[in-house]
Design brief:
The chain is an alpha+beta fold. The protein is 15% helix and 42% strand. α2 packs across α4.
């Protein structure tokens, strides 16, 4: 990997030195669920798919968000002239200006004075603690805080989360953008999350390395950072340490944000109705904690593995988008496989030519604005596919695949900001796993796609409602069935087991093994009293009923907390 890093840095320094950069991008963090939801609903309320943003890949570019709102503002003015007024509700305007305030480095329209005069220049504008806006330099600085306390039934311990940090982002000479966040965290989670961390996976959802903290608590440091620029027009390069999400759903079967951060190089190309994304990454292979070690991780150097991914998104019509996804995960003793650096070739063909046994995934996705304010979306994932076995219907283990089908609508029944989403996900046994225990589709002991792994089916329902008084309510409910292993028998749920340890070659069915029925419902009511500052009250009910009675679990969790410039981490699995 060393020579790849040197190549990347050499490329960056060369491009900067030549002074031929065209522009840059920074991005809306993936954890800002409220902000990302406002972006999605603005596109859904438009007559056509956005020309600025292809929503099948996140994080969204702040520059593109500002461009999308500018276009909407122009369309609104045109609608007044034509008499067919769009976005007529005053709350639409409030939501647009929320996004403009969130992107002060890209538009002056959001620079609303805060009337917070006592400590100027702090919070001169509502969207930033400190904004420096000079001709050749823009810098935005914001604090990150999250203080939360919670109580779980049948748990004597007080649950909590304590996060302090800082976010910095900026633009240099309109050529180079940068973004970084650092946070220090301590937390104690509900029992089912504690079991996931300390017993099942030795990993912390959404994070990487951690240490044990007091009784059943965790202490961890989290950092993200990247630089971004345009070497030529229409092509963006981003190099950094963060994570990505492919898909239009709540879940992703391709790549989600459930695991921790990782180093990456992203090349994003936008031409006409196309958006083409290349992603080159380094992941950490699975590991075990040291025996008797109070830390939830193994000491020493971890085994690295690498991936190359690409996704092509195309707006076929004004209302239909389709996409093609391919990824390959591999491990090499001498570093990165240089053949996979080719940005415009199918990885499966390269793998066959070099005689490799790397882990290739192929996927297809779509988004269709079928009705006003509504759309259908979905994903089809192919790990392996045996057409003859499908015809014979013999339960061949090699038919490793999954699919997603979802529906979203906004302003349901004419009620403004009453938004509903319904999504079904299903993944067959042994999907994402590999012959070895390194090249599976995981990072730092966590799935890279769906948090339930494989051998499951799931239905997710989400209802969001925002009042005109800065109160937002969100109800997320999931009903899932999962087939887990029995003893040492591999029934296809555990991605970390090599598929050569499978229970049988044929007659493999969805949910085979130890069947679990999982129900989880999470209600959050938030008051947005300042930009990106929320006071939250939440209630979570989780129940798991298993063929193995020792895995039965039922709990109620109540929490209250204050968040500043950070999203919620709701453990919906």
């Amino acid at each position: 990997m060393t020579y790849l890093r040197n190549l990347i840095f050499l490329l960056i320094l060369t491009l900067i030195a030549t002074n031929t950069l065209f522009g840059q991008h920074n991005y809306v963090p993936l954890d800002r669920a409220y902000t990302n939801h406002l972006i999605d609903r603005l596109e859904m309320k438009s007559d056509t798919l956005s020309e600025q943003i292809h929503t099948s890949h996140r994080p969204y570019s702040r520059k593109s968000v500002a461009g999308m709102i500018d276009k909407i503002e122009n369309d609104i003015m045109a609608s007044y002239e034509s008499g067919s007024i769009i976005f007529s509700d005053p709350q639409d305007r409030v939501q647009r200006y929320y996004l403009l305030k969130d992107n002060l480095d890209w538009t002056d329209k959001g620079k609303l004075f805060s009337n917070f005069k006592k400590f100027k220049p702090l919070y001169k504008y509502k969207g930033s603690l400190l904004l420096v806006d000079k001709k050749d330099f823009v810098l935005s600085i914001n604090p990150i805080l999250n203080f939360e306390v919670a109580k779980e039934t049948d748990n004597d311990d007080l649950l909590f989360k304590n996060t302090r940090g800082l976010e910095l982002r900026g633009i240099i000479s309109d050529k180079l953008a940068f973004h970084t966040t650092i946070t220090e965290n301590q937390a104690r989670h509900p029992k089912y999350v504690q079991n996931y961390i300390f017993n099942s996976y030795l990993s912390l959802p959404f994070q990487n390395r951690f240490a044990a903290f007091r009784d059943n608590g965790v202490d961890y440091f989290n950092a993200t950072g990247y630089i971004s620029f345009q070497p030529i027009k229409n092509i963006d390069l981003t190099f950094g340490h963060d994570k990505h999400f492919f898909g239009n759903g709540y879940r992703s079967l391709f790549l989600s944000d459930f695991s921790g951060n990782y180093p990456f190089l992203k090349i994003n190309t936008k031409l006409w109705k196309f958006e083409y994304t290349n992603l080159f990454t380094e992941f950490i292979s699975q590991f075990k904690g040291n025996e008797g070690n109070v830390y939830g991780y193994a000491d020493g150097e971890r085994i690295r593995k690498y991936s190359a991914m690409h996704h092509l998104s195309l707006n076929i019509t004004r209302k239909l988008n389709i996409g093609i996804f391919e990824s390959i995960i591999f491990s090499r003793g001498n570093g990165y496989e240089i053949n996979y650096l080719n940005p415009i070739i199918f990885y499966r063909s390269i793998e066959n030519q070099i005689g490799g046994t790397d882990n290739v995934l192929l996927g297809f996705d779509f988004k269709w604005k079928a009705f006003k304010n509504s759309l259908f979306y979905g994903q089809l994932l192919l790990d392996e596919w045996r057409f003859s076995a499908i015809i014979e219907n013999n339960g061949d283990w090699r038919n490793k695949n999954g699919f997603q089908l979802g529906f979203k609508t906004v302003d349901l029944l004419g009620v403004h900001s009453l938004d509903v989403q319904l999504e079904y996900n299903q993944v067959r046994p042994y999907t994402y796993s590999h012959s070895d225990t390194i090249s599976n589709f995981t990072h730092y002991n966590q799935p890279l796609a769906h948090p339930l792994g494989a051998n499951f089916r799931e239905l997710v329902g989400i209802v969001n409602y925002q009042t005109r008084f800065k109160v937002n309510a969100s109800l997320k409910t999931m009903v899932a069935q999962i087939g887990t292993d029995i003893g040492d028998l591999n029934y296809g749920n555990n991605l970390f087991l090599g598929y050569n340890t499978r229970f049988q070659d044929f007659n493999n069915d969805l949910l085979q093994g130890n069947k679990n029925d999982l129900f989880l419902s999470n209600l959050v009511v938030s008051y947005n009293f300042w930009h990106n500052m929320f006071f939250d009250l939440s209630y979570t009910f989780r129940e798991n009923l298993s063929d193995d009675n020792s895995l039965d679990y039922k709990s109620h969790t109540f929490s209250a907390g204050l968040r500043v410039n950070i999203g919620r981490s709701d453990y919906l699995f």
